[in-house]
Each structure stands twice: as structure tokens, then as C-alpha cells.
Amino acid sequence: MSTTATGPRSASRPAKRRRIKAQQPWLPWLFLAPAAFGYVVFYLWPTLRGIWLSFTEYNLLTPAKFVGLSNYERMFQDPIFWGSMRVTVLYVVLNIGIQTIMALLIAVLMHRLTKSTFVRSVVLSPYLVSNVVAAIVWLWILDAQFGVFNQFLEWIGIGKIGFLTDEFWAIPTIAMINVWRHMGYTALLIFAGLQTLPESVYEAARMDGASETRIFFSITMPLLRPILALVLIMTIIGSFQVFDTVAVTTGGGPANATNVLQMYIYDLAFGRFQFGYASAMSVALLIVLGIITIIQFKLTRANDTDLD
Amino acid sequence: MSSQTTNRAPVQSEPAPAPEPEFRKKSPWGKILAWTAMVIIMLVTLLPFYWMLRTALSTNSSLYLDPANPLPPEFSTGGFERVFGMQSAEEAIAEGGAVTDMNFWRYILNSTMLATLVTAGQLFFSAMAAYAFARLKFRGSNIVYVAFLAGLMVPSIFTLLPNFVLIKELGLIDSIFGIALPTMFMTPFAVFFLRQFFMNIPREIEEAALLDGISRIGIFFKVILPMAQAPMATLGILTYIAAWNDYFWPLMVSYTDNSRVLTVALGVFRAQSPQLGTDWAGLMAATLIAALPMIILFAIFAKRIVNSIGFNGLK
């Protein structure tokens, strides 16, 4: 996939260089100082602290008390945690499944039809509004009584559906809302990948009289695999962290049907001030994401390319 | 992965004018079908935006009487007036709104301040670090760079809880500064993105400047930054949009109008709206106002934003 990569510049550097005033040894650190400060204080330290807090009992008011593995023991016996895990996985499967198919469709359509900036802008537009805006708009469109989509369903004879109030429909609906917001962005990522595929392969295929479907399955998909793998890893990691849409539309209900992991973590930390337990759950999520990333890299050989 | 990605160009360059892929001559129907699908997808993408506008310009009572009307069933700007606190309590209740003391001007100001602070700080400090990694030789530079990159692997959400505890300890809860602080200095992505670009600036340009007696710091400000305008602008726009749209982190830190940003305000506005007979006109007016600045920004920079999304746009 690195076909467009620019080669290292150093090759063109003249072999012999005039000696210029020596660089002061403190200079690089001066340039690095603000970013390094930000990195240590707001990335490194919180990561370590999050892991430490998961072994403590902490309510913000009294100092954290070390309690060993008890948060993790409690987590394994917590039916709400397992419920959240189940709901989150269900959400990710629906969200990523539909989103990837839609994005692939859009990307291939654009690749075969047009390079127009207008088309790409339209497709990307939902990504420009916040999750909160997207959630509220769909809340209204899908409103059980007066939402226009339910009016339409009634008109064609299906009848009204409580998309966000029904235990069965709530998660698929939230997954669809986020598909709407993210499919264009994902499509543009895949589209950028398609641009790097050599046109010569397509010309050869067309010369041989291959059909569009044949070209898609025999050329586009295999060549796109490494790119698709990267896109999948990124979108799945993002999908697991779903919170905004749930918080605005259902708040975790009805009856915990949409109580995704982040929602439960937020509720534990800010609703019940159990920061230690909430941190343990964050660590669990971190581990799950790590495992998924490794498995995906192994399965899809994301680093390889078939172009060589 | 890092070794794979380091060689990539920083910004998706304009795609080379490759010959337009064409459908085979014998199947015009394929192309018609494909365009039909594309247009349907574009319509589905845009319809919610239209519905926002249509609802925002209606009265609540008419929305309930004629919910499927494609035009505002009864035109009114009451929704917008409620959002900006231009209606008296009696008027608001009469039009199906809630009595709120929400001040959206304040939230627009807060969101603008937050996004500006985050973007300016993150861009400048990340550029400094990226320059050090790209051009300045120092012991341990590789180790420090790998450590920075490792930050990409930790999902942002993991650091939120401990960062909240830290911001609370610093006494910065409920301030715009407290919300901005964690992303004001750097993100691993910004450093990575800009380093790619700086690496590709020919060394000869810098060497000429050094021979002219300009200091390294002078070179950074007078040579490097001006040359990096395009990637800095792209990164800046994306950072601004992300900061403007963020919800989870501001929700944790902000409690009052002091630091309430638009996304959080929208959540509160929705929660305050009566459960039966939600003030949809007001709510849609509010979402439209929250989304509008980004839509305008997008309209101006569409080409730059659209072209910037490639492998380096992966966050």
C-alpha cells in the first residue's frame, strides 16, 4: 500500500557537507519541551494512573485505598458488566458490519464514476456535525409518535416502531445512526486507498472483457485488503468507545438494553463515584481492544501488500 | 506499523490525473444504475439536515398535527427565539417550549474559545516537537519518538477518567482552560503528521539559511512554518472540528455556564425539554446553531478537508 510513498530524501543529499555552526545540545529539548510536558502529564501519567486506580477503591474525596484484585473479582461476577459487554459487542458487530459494506459500496461507486469534490463533500458532511447533533436529529426523525420515518412506515402499512424505546430495536437503531455519521468518512478512506491501486491492472482486466463484478471481486478486493484491514482496526476501536449517541438518545435504557461499556463506566464514575471499579473496567476495555488489534493484524496481515 | 507508515507523504496529494475509469461501452445501464445508487445515498445523507431546518422553522403544535409535511406546516422562527432567550416565559410555554435560562450565545463563545485554544496550542507545540524529531539530532530521539507514537495505541477514552482526577486536583474543573488543557500541548497524531511533512523539506533550504547566520529557532519561524502552511491549515481545520464536536470530555469537566460548550448544552436542552410534547422546533433550532459553524467551515474548506482524508487521516 506504500506505492505512493515518497522515498527517503537522504539519497539526494550531497555526500560532503560544509560544516555549519554546531547545534547547541539543549536546542532539541527546547523544541520538545511543551509537547513532552503534555505527553508525560496528559498521556503517560494518566495511563499509568488509570492502571493503578483499577487496583484501588477511590471516590475522589478520600485518598485511594489499595484493594488488590478485588475490583477485577467484582467485575467478573457483575452481571451488568457482562450485559454491557454483550450489548457493546452487538453494537460493534452491527455498526461495523453495515458501515463497512456501505462505505465500500460508496467508495467503489465514486472510484468508478466520479472524482467530483462535490460528491465527496456531500458524502462526508454528516462527519462534520457532532455525535450529539446527529443523535438529536435522528431522535426526532425516529420519534415513536411524530417522527417522519414512523409516519412513512405507517403509510406503507408496516406500522409505527419504537426505535429507541424498544429493547430489541434500540441497539440496531443507535448502530444505524452512527453508520449515517461515519460511512462517508470511512468511504473516503477506502476511496483514497483505491486511488493508489495501479490503473494498469484495471485496463488489462477491461481489455480481457472482465465484468464490473468480476473486476470488483478479482482485483479491487484483493488489492484493497491491507487498506481495508487498517480501516477496520481503526473503526472497530472507535466503535467500541461508543458513548455520545447512547447518552443523548437512550441514556442506557430501556432496562439496560443500550448500557454500553462506556455508559456503564461513566455511570460508575460520575453517578456512584466508584472510580476504582470504573478504572478496572476501562483496563478491561483496553485489553479487549489490544487483543482485537493483534488478532486483526495476524488474520489480515495488515502490513503486507499483494502489489509486490 | 510505524515503520510502514513513516514513509508516507504527509498530506494526500492531489491525485494524479489518471485516465478516467470508464464503464464498458456495451453496458450503459450499469452506469445509470450506479449513478442512481449514488444519488440515493447522497439524498439519504442530506435529508436529516433538511429535516432539521424544516422542523426548526415550524411551530410545535403544527408539527404534531401534520408530522409528515415536507415543508414547515406552519412557519415560525419561535424555535430560534427560544434558543437565544428572546422569548418571555409565557410565550415559550404557549409555543410548547420549556422555560429555560439557557444562553446559547454564551455556549457559542465557549465552544469557540475551547476550539481555538486547543487548535492553536496543539498545532504550535506539535509543530515544534515534530521539527525536533525531523531535523534536530539528539541522543535518544528515536526512543522519545517511539514513546510518542505509542500514545496512538492508547484509546483516548482510557485517559479520560485519570485526566478528570488530575484536572480536579489542579482546581480547573468547570473552566474552558481545564477542558482544553489535555489536548493543548500535543496529540501523537499531530506530531506524527507534521514530522512527515518536515522530513520532506529539502535540507538545502535550511543549510542556506544557516550559512546566512540565521539561528535554528529563526529557521523554524521564518523558513519551516511558512513552508508548512498547507499541512498546518489542514491539520488545524480537522483539530478545530474535532474540538468543537467533542462531547464526553467536556461533559465530565463542565458543570455550569462558565464552561458549558454547545454539545453539552444541547444535551442539557434535550434533557430539560418536557418528556411529553418535546419542544422539537426549539431543539432542532439549537442543533442547527451548534452545527452551522462547522458546516460553514466545511463549505469554505471542502476541497482541502476532503483531500486530506487518506491514510494519514486515520485517527
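qc> The two ends of chain B are 14 Å apart (CA to CA).
qc> done
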